[in-house]
Amino acid sequence: MPTPSAVAEPVAEAYRHGIGQALNALLRLGAFAAGDHVVNLCAGAGIDNLAIAGRVGPAGRLIAVDADPVALGRLRELAAKHRLSGVVQPVTADVTTYRPPPGVTHLACAFGLHHLIAPAAVTRQWATAVPAGTSLLLLDWGPRGATVGDACAGLPPVHPIWQPVAASTVRFGMPEPYPPVATIVIRRLTCRSKKEL
Ligand SMILES: C[S@@+](CC[C@H](N)C(=O)[O-])C[C@H]1O[C@@H](n2cnc3c(N)ncnc32)[C@H](O)[C@@H]1O
Model's pTM, two decimal places? Predict the structure, then answer.
C-alpha cells in the first residue's frame, strides 16, 4: 500500500501543474500592465497574488482582501520574500461588504465565489464601487470534464452588470483515487454602464 506521502506528492504535483496553467491563463486574460491597481478578493495567501503583483509592480498595487488575518500574514511574508512588499497591500475585511478604493483597474477573485452565500448579489455590490469598464477576473473550479461552453453553466453566478468578455478552460489529470480530470474556468468580465443596475 502506498504511504500517505507517496499519494500526497502526485496529487500536489497535479495541482501545482493545473494551478500554474490557470495562472498563466489569468495573466493572459487579465492583460495586467505596469501601474495597474488590482483588488484581489478572497485573496488568501495564494500565488495568484504574487503573479499579479509581479505584473503591476512596482508602480502598481495589489490590494489583497480576505477575512482571514492568518492567511494575510502568510501572504505578507511571501511578498517580502519575493521583494513585492511595496506592491502587495493585505486588507482584512469581509468581501461581501468591502468597497474597492477609487482608481482600481481590475477586480480579481480566485476560488472565492463558491465560499459566498449570494455571489450574484456580492458581485453587484462590487460593481457599485468601480467605474464602468473595470475588469473582473474570476477563477473557479468547473464541472468535471467540461469545456468552455458547458462549463460556465455550473459556475457560481455573477450579476449581469458584469458582461462576459472572454473565458478559457484548463483541464488536468488527477491521480487515483481522485476523479480523473479536474477543470478550472478562467473568466474575464467588464463592468457595464451603471444605468443597467
Ligand atoms: C479557496 S481560498 C482561495 C485563496 C486564493 N485566492 C487562492 O486561489 O489560493 C478562499 C478564501 O476566501 C476567503 N473568504 C471566504 N469568504 C470570505 C468573505 N466573506 N470575506 C473575505 N474572505 C473570504 C477565505 O478566508 C479563503 O482565504
Answer: 0.93
